[in-house]
Here is the input.
Amino acid sequence: MRFDILTIFPDMFAALTRFGIVGQAVKGGKIEINVVNIRDFSDKPHFMTDDRPYGGGEGMVMKPEPIVRALQSIPKVPGNRKVILLTPQGQLLEQSLARSLGTLAQLILVCGRYEGVDERIRSRYVDMEVSIGDYILTGGEIPAMVIVDAVSRLVPGVLGSERSALEESFEDSLLEYPQYTRPPIFQGESVPSILLSGDHGKIRIWRRTQSLQKTLERRPDLLKRASLSEEDRAILEELKQRPSTSATTAGRSKSHDTNDLDGLA
Ligand code: 9D3
Here is the structure.
């Protein structure tokens, strides 16, 4: 899969392309990330990419011509492609959208800055507008990186084989169970003994129960779309009977629950 990203801050994307799983995927040729500097397509002598809004008002608007020339410079990959504009007005990014974008051969992401881009870019060149959530950022670059990150890990071969698409579609509607590693006792708090028992049947049920309990307490909205087995439903019914422990204090004594950084000092 190929990603083309249009931005006036191309250097920001080193954070995405040089590190971690996405960096590895680029190196290994599983994905291609082409970052295009919109300013390279601006007009001499001033190389402006933005201008004052018609009708007046605060701030600046991105000029259409450099963006169009940048779009026209992008090689077309055979197969399905989409042009997405990152805007606070867009469709909210969810895992389901990431999954459908993952089927494309080419995804072109246009990052806005200032107050936004000239409306005629949206109307003539953009297939879809996407937002990553209801909070105000300073531009579309971080949202574009969020999309590339979320979509890349769904491209076959990017994650190890350890996590199949099937396993994930089953899992991703519930919150995770707690994870532990060595040491077995940390600041007086033990790893739940069941995890050391070697009884994989019991461990599976414990983890599933933890996932269901955490989801019930923190994100009950997620349970509606979860694919729950009969066993899951039985566990949930039991959890709903019991008085619920606070999400942050469950299994911890008061003295361990101050959540300050004393232990790190
Ligand atoms: C405070 C300025 N706003 C009122 C005039 C409009 C506005 C314009 C541009 C608000 C934010 C931005 C920059 N943000 C994005 O380009 C953006 C974004 C976001 O802010 N939050 C979540 N998803 C996205 S996708 C692109």
Summary: The pocket of 9D3 is lined by residues 86-88, 112, 115-116, 131-133, 135-140, 143 (CB under 6 Å). The beta strands are 2-7, 32-37, 50-51, 61-62, 81-92, 106-111, 128-131, 185-186, 189-190.
